[in-house]
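Batch job 17 of 40 flagged for manual review because the log was empty.
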Amino acid sequence: MTGVPDKKQTIAIAEADRQALRGEAAERGVGTGLFARAGLIYALERADDPALQLVVEQEAEAEKARITAAARAAVKERWKK
């Protein structure tokens, strides 16, 4: 990555992942944001790695399932009377 970090990006993560991120950062004596940025840089430098592509595909499927479940729950709630 180049330049000075000057933009924020917010992502939703599971509580367990947030705790793991915090723990890994603490083990290294750095803040969570710095550790997350380092992980992002590491991933971007390996964007063509098939292992990373597999993780991306798994996350995409999981997100699709979450969205579908939320939509079904919303429909069920709306028509429940």
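Reviewer: the log was empty due to a logging misconfiguration, but the result itself is present. The chain has two domains: 1-45, 48-81. Unflagging and moving on to job 18.
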